[in-house]
Design brief:
Helices cover 39% and strands 19% of the residues. It is α/β, with parallel strands linked by helices. The chain has one domain (75-290): Alpha-Beta Complex (Spore Coat Polysaccharide Biosynthesis Protein SpsA, Chain A), CATH 3.90.550.10. Strands 5-11-6-7 form a 4-stranded mixed sheet. It has a 3-stranded parallel sheet with strand order 1-2-3. It has a two-stranded antiparallel ribbon with strand order 4-10.
Length: 291
C-alpha cells in the first residue's frame, strides 16, 4: 500500500484486511510505503506483520508500489489503496485464485459506497485511451478498482510494475495494456464485493498533484505501452488535450520500453481490438475530426 496523508483510513484498512484474512491458509505480511505523509497517519502502524518504508519526499503511486513489491517476500502480491474495506474471506480467496489460475484477479468493487464495478474496459476518449467502468464483468476485463492479486510471474512480465513519472494517473491503463500485451490475463471474482472510498471532487485528493503530473503520465503511458500506434494516433490527441509536455522520457523510460519489446506477444492493434473492440480506429477518427 502506498500511503500519503490518509488519516485514520490506513489503520481501518489494515484492520479490515486482517479480519478478511482471518481464514487464510497462508502466511502474509503488509508492506506500507509512507510516501511523504505530513499528517502522522503511519505513526505506530509498524508491527511484526506490518513493514513500514518511508520516503522523505513523495515519489508517486507507481514508484511507491514498486518499492513495496521489491521489499515483499511473498509469492503472491495483493495490491490495494489505503482507503478500502474487505468482507471476511475476500482477500484470501483473491490470493488463492491468483495463485491457482496464474491470472491477475480482482473483486467486484463498490466505489464511493454506491456504484458496484466489476472489471472495466477501455475506450478511446479525448484524453487518449481511457477506462470504462461497467457494472458487469467483461470477457477481457481491464484493471480497475485498485484491488488486485497477482503472482511474481505477472509482476516480472509487467516490467516489475510500470513506473510512471507523475504522482498519480494512468496506472490502471498501463497495467491493463501491459497485461494483455505480454500474454497475461485478468479475471473478476464475483463472489465478494470490496469497498473503495474514492475522492470525487477535484482538489479533494489527500496529496498534492503538481500541474503536469497527470499529463506526463498520459504521454509516458501511451508511448511506453503503445509504441506502434503512438506517433500516428495517440500523440496528436494528447497534445490537443494537454499541450506539449517536457521531460517525461528518461533513462527509466528507455529501460522499460526495451524490456517490453522483449516480452511483447501481441501488437498494438491486437491489444486495442481486445480491450476496445473492433471499432477502436473509428472512435479514434471521430475524436480527431471532432477536435
Amino acid at each position: 500500500m502506498p500511503v500519503c496523508n490518509q488519516g485514520e483510513w490506513l489503520r481501518k484498512t489494515i484492520e479490515s484486511a486482517i479480519h478478511s484474512l482471518s481464514d487464510a491458509w497462508f502466511d502474509y505480511e503488509f508492506v506500507v510505503v509512507d510516501d511523504g505523509s505530513t499528517d502522522g497517519c503511519c505513526d505506530g502502524v509498524e508491527t511484526d506483520r506490518v513493514i513500514l518504508l518511508k520516503n522523505a519526499n513523495p515519489v508517486g503511486a507507481t514508484h511507491a508500489r514498486h518499492q513495496a513489491m521489491l521489499k515483499a517476500q511473498g509469492d503472491v502480491f495483493l495490491m490495494c489503496d489505503p482507503h478500502c474495506s474487505f468482507p471476511k474471506g475476500a482477500l484470501s480467496r483473491l490470493v488463492t485464485l491468483a495463485n491457482d489460475t496464474g491470472r491477475l484477479t480482482m473483486p467486484k468493487v463498490r466505489m464511493y459506497s454506491e456504484k458496484v464495478l466489476a472489471g472495466g474496459g477501455m475506450c478511446v476518449s479525448y484524453r487518449g485511451l481511457q477506462l470504462t467502468r461497467p457494472s458487469r464483468p467483461r470477457p477481457r476485463p481491464s484493471c480497475m478498482g485498485t484491488i488486485y492479486a497477482f503472482n511474481r510471474t505477472i509482476y516480472r512480465r509487467l516490467l516489475e510494475f510500470p513506473r510512471l513519472p507523475g504522482k498519480w494517473g494512468y496506472q490502471e491503463q498501463a497495467m491493463s495494456v501491459l497485461l494483455y500485451k505480454t500474454g497475461m490475463r485478468a479475471s473478476v471474482d464475483t463472489k465478494y464485493t470490496c469497498n473503495h472510498i474514492g475522492y470525487r471532487r477535484k482538489g479533494t485528493y489527500p496529496f498534492d498533484i503538481p500541474k503536469g503530473d497527470i499529463a506526463r503520465n498520459a504521454f509516458y503511458f501511451h508511448a511506453l505501452c503503445l509504441p506502434q500506434t503512438y506517433l500516428a494516433h495517440w500523440h496528436p490527441i494528447l497534445v490537443k488535450h494537454f499541450g506539449k509536455v517536457k521531460d517525461w522520457s528518461d533513462g527509466l523510460f528507455k529501460s522499460q520500453s526495451q524490456g517490453l519489446c522483449q516480452l511483447s506477444e501481441k501488437s498494438d492493434d491486437e491489444v486495442l481490438t481486445d480491450l476496445c473492440g473492433e471499432n477502436w480506429r473509428t472512435q479514434m477518427r471521430r475524436k480527431r475530426i471532432a477536435s
